[in-house]
Description:
Elements: E1 7-10, H1 20-34, E2 39-44, H2 56-66, E3 76-77, H3 82-94, E4 98-101, H4 105-110, E5 139-142, E6 148-153, E7 157-162, H5 163-166, E8 170-173, H6 181-192, E9 196-200, H7 207-217, E10 223-227, E11 229-231, H8 252-262, H9 276-286, E12 297-299
Parallel strand pairs: 1-2, 2-3, 9-10, 11-12
Antiparallel strand pairs: 4-5, 5-8, 6-7
Amino acid sequence: MSAPVYRGRFAPSPTGPLHFGSLVAAVGSYLDARAVGGEWLLRIEDIDAPRNVPGAEASILHTLAALGFVWDGPPLRQSTRRERYREVLERLYRQGDAYPCACSRREIADSRLGPSVDGGLVYPGTCRAGLPPGRTARAWRLRVPDAVVAFTDRVQGEVAQNLERDVGDFVLLRADGQFAYQLAVVVDDADAGITDVVRGADLIDSTPRQIGLQRCLGVPTPRYAHLPVATNAAGEKLSKQTLAPAVDAGGGVPLLAAALRFLGQSVPLAVERMATAEFWAWACAHWSPAAVPRRRASPGPDQCLPP
Ligand code: GLU
């Protein structure tokens, strides 16, 4: 069997219903795949169990189906993959790439290394050479190189990060026993043979960590396209925390057209009168990745405002 030319995915977390920002990621990843005859897989990122909201997964799937998205194969739930993540963590440990860490947040904060690229704390490497005597493991971390990891994002251009200086050894298995997003996403994308990751630019700063992990595991690095994220009137990213309203599953083509315009595509008014299937055929034929604004965030349309 030959490798797929393009296999994309959309990976919502079931922390709430789809809002306009997550719809944009769904539309962008879908069109980028379908426009070249590629596959589009759906993955439910429910690995962070405490954040899951009952009913959110069903609501997301219902909204996607009502808006005419068609995915390949059944959706994959990360919660079914814990054994696989454990196996990978053990392998990283055997290779000398992962190690147990006893440090509490307070201890890391006291090291005064300062904030990491994503607002966390740069880990000072205290447990790198082994757990201090009398201490027990709380979390597991990846040993990162003191080297620059760079990639060319299809939308945002060159991105470079020194993993040791900008992030430090990062967590793979958290102190609360949950596998970290960074580990799960890399293992899932690699196991599924994902060739292209199209997602919100809020995740661009974690991409060098994911590439670092891919290198430790000897798996290919997909192409990346990080789309601008939608913000509300206060300039905040739409999310559950900023009370972003759910998109209307019955919003139909006008809603999809709004997501496309947000992605810099020009959508003639006549397109809004199309039936859903006709709209998707039109959108696939006209999808222009080059037109996506090279910005990490942009104000969303009016329906992004909280009620
Ligand atoms: N689950 C993440 C989110 O909903 C997306 C992760 C990804 O696309 O890599 O923001």
